[in-house]
TrEMBL record:
It comes from the Bacteria. Pathway: Cofactor biosynthesis; adenosylcobalamin biosynthesis. GO terms for biological process: cobalamin biosynthetic process; methylation. This is Precorrin-3B C(17)-methyltransferase. SUPFAM superfamilies: Tetrapyrrole methylase. PROSITE patterns: COBK_CBIJ.
Length: 516
């Protein structure tokens, strides 16, 4: 009797995503070889069959076993979740088969994680896309990075499989930062866990927010391209190429900028004040770079005489602009919590051989009744443990960390944000009701804070150690007056080559570098 080897795909989870042809193949088979977990979904078709379940790690043994049975004349079904031809058992079976084997081979396709997860996010893969597995069990890690770099440079939408496991924690952040080198930080992404299985979770983030998330092996990441948009709480990528060179994209052409200047990366009131002072007192031209158009407008008003380079420019555009304008020094006066930006600037200066200086506003000493938190994640946990009506003065970037933390749905959340449409949209997408959003540019007085928090009956406030320019003291005073818990997220620790806490310190550093 001639055996049959059915290579059967059973989809992401629930039985209604198994195609009828897969069911027919299961029914036809006498022997089933599968990983335990998958048996649950195909249980109705298992009765009376010989079942083998070698452990997940022994993939080759599973393939060999199925082949041996087929060689012996049995009708065998070897099973994988998703599609058996995608990061799964089919290739192993082909590797182990011999040219002179006579059993019949039938491959039954299935819904793979890429399109299962995409369907839960909207339609992010509607134009060209790539998939990348981050598992280096069967492939050297350098290849994975090499491919990630090319995917990012081509601005392909992409799907990351095997994202993070207990033994592989760092790789995903490495790949995300490679993506950030060529894709814009606001590129829309989706994170899907347990698609079409119990415990399904679906969330949308910007690419730069992904660096602070934790993932696992049940998760798939989808990264959009420059055209990916939001609508109705979902994301989609339009078909076709649109206007590839439209502005505000990852790599916009560098504008003409003064040469041999001092570059100040700002976006904060004290960064602008520093720029204004240097423009007035120094002989070198000053170029201010701010991440938003609004920041640019403010800088133009606050710093007469500087050249401006604003809007979200990717690292590639920054590299070009610094090289073309022959920058003399990179002065990093970004927000104390903008650590991704600071890390990029340090790296870029090193690569281009341009001196890097850091200006960081002094931190305010914290009072004894303040609760210190190591990270946004830690603050989310502590806030949920202590508060019922929780006020977030932490900015828009970390909102998801709070609003999607375990237990967050049992709390009432109130947020204060800068009035950027994109920030508001993020809060709304995360389900914050309109009457719990205060959208206004700071700084805020202690009186304003305490009136707002009293009216909203806030019992817990979360903020950052943002120093005087960030209005920290006015928040601490109001929380103290109302007797409510104040949680403060610690500044991220970066290994800065040079740090000055005063404008004079910066001036001295410039003199030491012989910059007029
Ligand atoms: N053959 C499978 C992929 C196996 S690799 C397929 O075609 O889908 C295993 C990886 O797939 C996991 O680490 C995860 O990234 C992804 N994955 C599998 N099932 C998933 C599900 N239900 N939801 C989200 N991701 C899933």
């Amino acid at each position: 009797m001639n055996g049959v080897l059915n290579l059967v795909s059973v989809g992401p989870g629930f039985a209604d995503l198994i195609i009828p042809r897969a069911i027919a193949a299961l029914q036809e088979s006498d022997v089933i070889v599968a990983y335990d977990l998958y048996l649950r979904w195909i249980e109705p078709y298992l009765e009376g069959k010989e079942i083998h379940t070698p452990p997940l790690t022994q993939e080759r043994a599973r393939a060999l076993l199925a082949i041996e049975k087929a060689r012996g004349g049995a009708k065998v079904a070897l099973i994988s979740s998703g599609d058996i031809g995608i990061y799964a058992m089919a290739a192993l079976a082909y590797e182990e088969m011999r040219e002179d084997d006579t059993f019949e081979v039938k491959l039954i396709p299935g819904v793979t994680s890429a399109n299962a997860c995409a369907s839960l996010l909207g339609s992010p893969l509607s134009h060209d896309f790539a998939t990348l597995s981050l598992s280096d069990l069967l492939c050297p890690w350098e290849w994975i990075e090499h491919r990630a770099r090319h995917i990012a440079q081509a601005d392909l939408a992409c799907v990351l499989y095997n994202v993070q496991s207990a033994g592989r924690q760092e790789g995903v952040y490495r790949v995300l930062s490679l993506m950030l080198e060529s894709k814009a930080p606001h590129t829309l992404c989706g994170v899907v866990k347990n698609a079409y299985r119990p415990g399904q979770e679906v969330a949308i983030y910007r690419l730069d927010e992904m660096m602070s998330l934790k993932f696992d092996m049940l998760t798939t990441i989808v990264i959009g391209n420059r055209f990916t948009q939001r609508k109705r709480g979902q994301i989609f990528t339009p078909r076709g190429y649109n206007d590839w060179s439209a502005p505000d994209l990852a790599v916009a052409p560098a504008p003409v900028l003064p040469e041999h200047g001092v570059w100040i990366f700002s976006g904060t009131s004290d960064g602008n004040a520093l720029a204004a002072q240097l423009a007035k007192s120094g002989a070198s031209p000053v170029i201010v770079s701010s991440a938003t158009e609004y920041g640019g407008e403010i800088a133009l008003k606050d710093c007469p005489g500087v050249a401006l380079w604003s809007g979200r420019q990717g690292i590639e555009a920054r590299r070009q602009a610094l090289v073309q304008s022959k920058a003399r020094v990179v002065l990093d006066a970004t927000h104390p919590y903008a650590q991704i930006m600071s890390a990029q600037l340090i790296e870029l200066s090193r690569e281009l051989g341009i001196p890097y200086l850091r200006y960081e506003r002094p931190a305010t000493p914290l009072a004894d009744d303040v609760i210190r938190c190591a990270s946004p994640r830690d603050a989310a946990e502590q806030a949920i443990a202590r508060g019922q009506r929780i006020f977030l003065a932490t900015g828009s970037k970390d909102l998801a960390t709070f609003l999607q933390a375990p237990g967050a749905d049992q709390k009432q959340w109130f947020v204060r944000l800068t009035a950027e449409p994109e920030f508001l949209q993020r809060a709304l997408d995360l389900g914050v009701p309109r009457d719990r959003i205060c959208a206004m540019q700071g700084p805020f007085s202690a009186a304003f804070n305490s009136a707002l928090w009293r009216d909203w009956q806030i019992d817990c406030v979360v903020t950052k150690e943002s120093g005087a320019a960030g209005g920290y003291a006015a928040k601490a005073a109001a929380a103290h007056e109302l007797g409510i818990a104040l949680l403060v997220i610690a500044r991220p620790q970066l290994d800065y080559p040079h740090v000055s806490e005063t404008f004079d310190g910066v001036a001295q550093q410039l003199v030491a570098l012989q910059i007029p």
